[in-house]
Structure formats: structure tokens, C-alpha cells
Amino acid sequence: REIDPTGQHFRADQLVKVYRPADEVFSRDAVHSFMLKPITDDHPTEPVTADNWKQHARGVAAGAMRDGDFLAFDLVLMDRTAIAAVDGGKRELSNGYTSE
Q: What are phi and psi of 44, to 5 degrees?
């Protein structure tokens, strides 16, 4: 669904592997692009914008750094329900990452 939302190339339930070169993922500009971006609970069906951030944002990414093969984030959650969900084990938050 995230790779091909209209279903022109893949089925919605099909697993699609996406290659993202480490030199792009961990570049200074890419890592810094996450800073102070909205964190959402799950994945909204639309990008978070100034027009809808109140509807979707639950906090922000306050820091980002490489942690082995992953990017690690310092999150500031400001929504009571989202905080309780994470305290309860929830791990599906989104920072709105997109790529071409």
C-alpha cells in the first residue's frame, strides 16, 4: 500500500523489498531532515501538513542518529493516548518518511 497506493504495480498485501543505499539513508542531510518532524500514531493515509497536523501529530522527532543498520530517534510524545500506547508496548509510530 505504501509503495504503490493505487495498486497499479503491486497488490496491497504484496511484500515489496525497497533498497535504500546506506550512504543516502545515513547522510547528514537525510538524518537532519527528520528533526522536529511530526510523529504520528500508525501511518496516516495522507501526508501531515500545516492544514492537518492537529489531526495527526502526536509529538516530534527531537534527535536522530545512526544505530548500526538503523536510524534511532529521540521522540517527544505530547499526546496522552500515544504515550500510554508506547508505555504499553506499541511500536508502530511514523515520522512521515518518504523517498523517491
A: -60, 155
pLDDT digits (tens, 9 = 90+) for 79-89: 999 999 999 99
Give the SS3 label for residue 87: helix
Cα–Cα distance list, 96 to 9, 10, 36, 37 (Å): 22, 21, 11, 8
CA dihedral 51, 63, 70, 78 (to 10 degrees): -50
Taking residue 49's Cβ as centre, other Cβ atoms within 10 Å add up to: 9
Q: Which residues pair with 73 in a beta bridge?
A: 64
Q: pTM of this prediction?
A: 0.73
